[in-house]
């Protein structure tokens, strides 16, 4: 019960102005980097001409036809379609001067954008099967080296929800909580969860607009998934800590 009380309090709104937080930002500590990079990884350019792939521009229809889709056709997803979904959910529209913040296609409290996007390409034309990390500023993918057992283990980590890895592509979002703690201190976590809701709904609507379907997945074994992605699972206040916060399968309906 104490735990529930504590978590309910965490969800409640805050009233402090930005400058009232006892945060690293207000102590003059340097802002953490805007995005994560895997030095030395192979980069893949993503095409950006999306007009040709858009199949439905009717917003009302997209809203009302959106549903969770857990069965996908065996058809391949094109690199352009994947590029569009990455751009819609995390793509950068503007880098604020001196790389102090990014403005993206989704909103984020304080323009912090604490999430990183990973994708598992199962059947994407032009991509070798495997795990990739999205670079939102460059709009590129980094190809990551993974164990052969990755695909099988990710299904286990997501509690047997095999539709994720059977999908032509699956998305995984991790959070680097220090990015928002730097500004919002102990009030960062509720803001970050709201941010993920924006990303998730944008994926649903963007997928629908190119005749694809998606399903958000929030049920998974945290430790197993984090270990698989190579994240440090030690609890603590480490500023570099990163952990998984959900996934989604995507494919043609
Ligand atoms: C945050 C979140 C977590 C979810 N987690 C799962 C999940 O782990 N497995 C699953 O099959 N569906 C999951 N869903 C999909 C919901 O079950 C689905 O949205 C709900 O049943 C309503 O159906 P609809 O999306 O078709 O309207 C999740 C949805 C959200 C928004």
UniProtKB/TrEMBL annotation:
This is SagB-type dehydrogenase domain-containing protein. It comes from the Bacteria. Pfam families: Nitroreductase. PANTHER family: NITROREDUCTASE MJ1384-RELATED. NCBIfam families: antibiot_sagB (TIGR03605). One of its GO terms (molecular function) is oxidoreductase activity. Residues 64-232 form the Nitroreductase domain. InterPro entries: Bacteriocin_Proc_Enz, Nitroreductase, Nitroreductase-like, SagB-type_dehydrogenase.
């Amino acid at each position: 019960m104490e735990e529930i009380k504590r978590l309910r309090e965490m969800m409640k709104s805050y009233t402090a102005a930005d400058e009232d937080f006892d945060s690293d930002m207000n102590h003059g500590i340097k802002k953490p980097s805007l995005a994560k990079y895997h030095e030395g990884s192979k980069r893949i350019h993503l095409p950006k001409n999306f007009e040709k792939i858009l199949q439905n521009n009717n917003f009302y229809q997209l809203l009302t036809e959106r549903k969770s889709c857990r069965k996908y056709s065996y058809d391949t997803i094109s690199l352009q379609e994947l590029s569009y979904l990455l751009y819609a959910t995390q793509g950068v529209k503007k880098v604020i001067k001196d790389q102090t913040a990014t403005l993206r296609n989704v909103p984020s409290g304080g323009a912090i954008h604490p999430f990183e996007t990973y994708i598992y390409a199962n059947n994407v034309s032009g991509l070798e099967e495997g795990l990739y990390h999205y670079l939102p500023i460059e709009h590129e993918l980094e190809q990551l080296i993974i164990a052969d057992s990755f695909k099988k283990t990710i299904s286990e980590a997501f509690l047997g929800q095999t539709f994720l890895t059977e999908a032509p592509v699956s998305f995984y979002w991790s959070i680097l909580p220090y990015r928002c703690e730097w500004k919002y201190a102990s009030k960062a976590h509720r803001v970050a969860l709201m941010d993920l809701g924006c990303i998730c709904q944008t994926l649903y609507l963007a997928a629908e607009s190119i005749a694809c379907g998606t399903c958000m997945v929030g049920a998974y074994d945290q430790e197993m998934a984090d270990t698989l992605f190579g994240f440090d699972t030690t609890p603590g206040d480490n500023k570099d800590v990163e952990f998984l916060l959900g996934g989604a399968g995507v494919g043609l309906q």
